[in-house]
Write a structure and sequence with these properties.
The complex is a heterodimer of chains A (540) and B (274).
Chain A lengths: L1 H8 L4 H5 L18 E2 L12 E7 L11 E4 L24 E3 L2 E6 L2 E6 L5 E8 L12 E3 L2 E5 L4 E6 L5 E6 L14 E3 L2 E5 L10 E5 L6 E6 L16 H5 L10 E3 L4 E5 L21 E6 L5 E6 L15 E7 L2 E9 L4 E6 L5 E6 L7 E4 L5 E3 L10 E3 L13 E3 L4 E15 L11 E17 L5 E7 L9 E3 L3 E5 L4 E5 L6 E6 L9 E5 L2 E8 L2 E7 L2
Parallel strand pairs in A: 1-31, 3-7
Antiparallel strand pairs in A: 2-37, 4-5, 5-6, 6-7, 8-9, 9-10, 10-11, 12-13, 13-14, 14-15, 16-17, 17-18, 18-19, 20-21, 21-22, 22-23, 24-25, 26-28, 27-28, 28-29, 29-30, 31-32, 32-33, 33-34, 35-36, 36-37
Chain B lengths: L1 H9 L2 H4 L8 E2 L10 E2 L3 H14 L1 H4 L16 H5 L6 H7 L13 H19 L14 H9 L17 H4 L2 H9 L9 H4 L3 E5 L5 E9 L3 E5 L5 E5 L6 E5 L3 H6 L5 H12 L3
Antiparallel strand pairs in B: 1-2, 3-4, 3-7, 4-5, 5-6
Helix pairs in contact in B: 3-7, 8-13, 10-13
Classes of the chains: A mainly beta (540), B alpha+beta (274).
């Protein structure tokens, strides 16, 4: 018991932040930096062509598989809205955690422990849902022997990692307000960071810190000021607008242990696709915010989309980069944002350093202001007769994990060039909900981009002939970049040049971020594709 | 007694009034919400709107989004959490003296109708897949015609007396504009059936294959030729030579060129082609 406890704790120590763990994958991004870079190089450019399938897992979801541990508050026959069929069946979007030879991951309402050596299930937990959008789950968090995951009907569930038995569940938000929860909880010290989502009923976003032992709330940070006169309230017309202003926290954030700051990107303001009734910048929506992990107090914010009206939340992973900028070492933070711009900031104070356009078709901005923020063109806000906007609401990029490789100095991201026509549907002076209809006009495939963080310029790009999918990215010291295209291929690129070195068709698009770790002296590459999890190794 | 009253008030209206069965909960195709919302019959909703406007509209606005003195009820947590009137009924009958809301004597039927109207209002916001595009015919048809024959170069491929003859009668304006902006059918379009991309694959030997493109990625290309035979080829960089032909390329290229006024004018013009 004791030795496993130590092993569980070790990967999350400060030292692990400098040198990412290699014998585990203890948190959503592998470490707190969000880089998804592994120093492992047993699998490398010389032997990548010899990658061998170690195992495939098709996890059995739902209430019926024998041995399933059942929890949850919903009926035996789930609400129609709570069935996964609406989102293409079971999709593994989680990045599994790996500790002591056991993988832990989740899909909406389901969590599993799996033997990392064999791909065999150890236990399966199922949560009977009361509803909520079942679009995805980004995984679990772990603290000592306690596992945490969020459900579409907005509960934080804690399981005993050894048995899968439920310890407790606490309500995060009200599913009847159309909140739904997808993030992987991030554990920092004795704080479980819990975010949520939901865009249709004009509800405020928040991030909670929860006690891992009891589930009690330690602090709650709201994405908007709570009352008139509070800092930020000058960016809203009234309290009604700001208290229903959105700003969801649905992608896990990053953390700098030295600064004790948790960085998270906030979602779009609400009503989503009309700015009527919420005139102003709408702080702190579409922002990168730095929160003190012990108090939840905001140290700084930088808003990447003032007064967004196109659903371009800024939740994309803000990656911590310790690198050179203007000739001296700096503590930096970078985001490739859904609105189509790349941003580089100083993460000690939020000072703006770089803003750069990522996609060529973008047509919604009138340029960059003195603070480096894009200036929205009011003519591209939805009208009754429609406006043509690039990118569409899915954005230039979305939740699939980007990566930063400190050896190449390049930031990697999947982008899409798209157009949509946006029609205002709610003509009330104070619209509600999404307020507009969007019709997608075109998606011009997808492009993997390697961006120089110092300038925001694309150094190389690879356009997928069959379109981009929604795969995350992993880079390694083996001089490899793993990701997937939109044609069901897992692909290894040379991160320096974009040359393709290896691929395998997996029968479904890569649906999560690939990860890697050492187990029994072997480097494993783990990737989810649709309803299956694949493990690859190179025979030594 | 007070406890009893509270218990009664929290009973679903359906149980209190056997005449109005609870509406079925449904999920509308493409609704996009996370809950199964009630499907009320139109007569109930019409009565609910009338009753709400008469009894509640003065304070809460006739659309329930808030008025002179009452809050927005569609953004009310209590309304969203209500089941068949169990919460709304209590507030209506007991009032909220602290907030300035008087109590109302109201029949079971009227209350049930108001409850239906409020829940429908929430549903209509939540299920964005059911939102409707309004009037998009706002442009100048003359300017649209000039664009069609001039800068837009539409007439280089299309003719209003040929392929587009009567197109304004064939499609409603929203569908018609869709043909222009998303000719392959948008996100859910049947690209292969409507306007397939074709491909020519030329092998190093000089032999070439042509047909409807079935699949392409960095590693393979596949096509179905005019005989209905399927061919697939491994790709290794530039070998074999692969050339794609997209009959809709011009439409896609135009997306980076159109102004919104040009789209509106063109739509207004096409609508006149009855």
């Amino acid at each position: 018991m004791k030795s496993s406890l130590i092993a569980l704790l070790l990967p999350l120590t400060l030292a692990a932040q400098v040198t990412p763990p290699t014998n585990s994958w203890p948190t959503y991004n592998g470490d707190y930096s969000g880089r998804r870079f592994s120093p492992l190089k047993q699998i490398n450019q010389l032997n990548v062509k010899a990658l061998t399938l170690a195992w495939i897992l098709h996890p059995a979801a739902g209430q019926n598989p024998s041995g399933t541990i059942v929890g949850g508050l919903g009926p035996d026959t789930p609400p129609l809205a709570g069935r996964e069929s609406g989102f293409g069946g079971l999709q593994i979007k989680a990045t599994p955690l790996m500790l002591n030879g056991i993988l832990y991951f989740a899909t909406p309402d389901n969590a599993w422990a799996v033997d990392a050596r064999s791909g065999r299930e150890i236990w399966h937990y199922f949560w009977k849902t009361t509803g909520g959008i079942h679009i995805g789950n980004r995984g679990v968090g772990i603290f000592e022997n306690w596992l945490f995951f969020e459900t579409p009907d907005d509960y934080l569930v804690s399981l005993d990692a050894r048995t899968g038995k439920e310890r407790w569940h606490v309500r995060i938000a009200d599913v009847k307000e159309e909140y739904f929860s997808t993030p992987a909880p991030i554990i920092i010290g004795n704080h479980v960071m819990v975010g949520t989502g939901g865009d249709t009923l004009d509800v405020p976003g928040f991030l909670e810190s929860v006690d891992p032992e009891t589930g009690a709330m330690q602090w709650k940070w709201w994405s908007e000021p709570l009352k008139k006169g509070d800092p930020g309230s000058e960016t809203w017309p009234n309290e009604n607008a700001m208290r229903h202003g959105g700003g969801m926290t649905w992608v896990p954030g990053t953390y700098d242990p030295a600064l004790k700051l948790y960085y998270i990107g906030t979602g779009n303001p609400q009503p989503v696709e009309s700015g009527h009734g919420r005139e102003g910048d709408n702080l702190w929506t579409c922002s990168i915010v730095a929160l003190n992990v012990d108090t939840g107090k905001m140290a700084w914010y930088y808003q990447v989309s003032p007064h967004d009206t196109h659903d371009w939340d800024a939740t994309q992973t803000p990656i911590l980069i310790d690198g050179i900028y203007n000739g001296r070492p700096r503590k930096l933070i970078a985001q490739a944002s859904r609105n189509g711009y790349f941003f580089l900031l100083d993460r000690t104070n939020g000072k703006h350093l770089v803003t750069a356009k990522m996609i060529e078709t973008m047509n919604w901005s009138k340029g960059i202001n003195a603070k480096g923020q894009p200036i929205p063109d009011p003519a591209k806000e939805s009208t009754i007769d429609g406006v043509l906007v690039s990118p569409n609401s899915t954005g230039a990029t979305n939740w699939p994990a980007p990566s930063f490789d400190p050896e190449t100095g390049l930031f990697y991201v999947l982008t899409n060039e798209t157009f949509s026509e946006f029609y205002l549907a709610d003509t009330d002076p104070q619209p509600e909900g999404y307020a507009a209809v969007e019709r997608n006009a075109a998606t011009y495939g997808g492009t993997l981009r390697a961006i120089d963080y110092k300038t925001g310029k694309t150094v190389w790009s690879h356009r997928y002939p069959g379109g981009g999918g929604s795969a995350g990215i992993l880079t390694t010291a083996g001089k490899l970049l793993f990701t997937g295209d939109g044609a069901q291929n897992l692909i290894a690129f040379d991160p320096a040049t974009g040359k393709i070195l290896w691929h395998a068709g997996l029968g479904a698009n890569i649906s999560n971020g690939p990860e890697t770790y050492m187990l029994d002296g072997k480097q494993y590459l783990i990737v989810g594709a649709g309803d299956s999890l694949f493990a690859f190794t190179v025979d030594q | 007694m007070a406890v009893l009253a509270l218990l009664c008030a929290s009973l679903p209206l359906a149980a209190q009034n056997p005449g109005s069965a609870a509406a079925p909960r449904v999920r509308r195709p493409g609704g996009g919400a996370g809950l199964d919302y009630e499907a009320y019959d139109p007569a109930t909703l019409a009565r609910g709107k009338a009753t709400f406007t008469a009894k509640c509209g003065f304070c809460h606005g006739s659309n329930a989004r808030g008025g002179e003195s009452g809050p927005d009820l569609l953004r009310s947590e209590l309304v969203r959490d209500d089941d068949d009137g169990n919460l709304i009924g209590q507030v209506v009958r007991n009032g909220r003296p602290a907030g300035g809301m008087p109590k109302f004597e109201i029949s079971e039927t009227d209350l049930a109708d108001i409850v239906a109207f409020l829940h429908e209002g929430v549903r209509a916001e939540a299920e964005r897949g059911t939102y409707k595009v309004l009037n998009i015919v706002t442009g100048d048809p003359k300017a649209g015609e000039a664009y069609f024959n001039g800068a837009g170069k539409c007439s280089t491929c299309h003719s209003v007396t040929g392929d587009l003859r009567g197109i304004g009668a064939k499609y409603d304006p929203v569908a018609l504009q869709g043909k222009l902006l998303m000719p392959a059918g948008g996100r859910t379009g049947q690209r292969r059936a409507n306007a397939p991309v074709t491909v020519t694959v030329t092998l190093p030997s000089g032999k070439s294959f042509e047909g409807i493109m079935e699949r392409i990625d960095d590693f393979n290309v596949a096509l179905t030729d005019a005989n209905g035979d399927y061919h697939s080829f491994s790709r290794n960089g530039a070998i074999p030579k692969v050339v794609l032909h997209d009959p809709l390329k011009q439409h896609y290229d135009m997306l980076s060129k159109y102004t919104d006024a040009e789209i509106h004018n063109l739509t207004a013009y096409l609508v006149t082609l009855k």
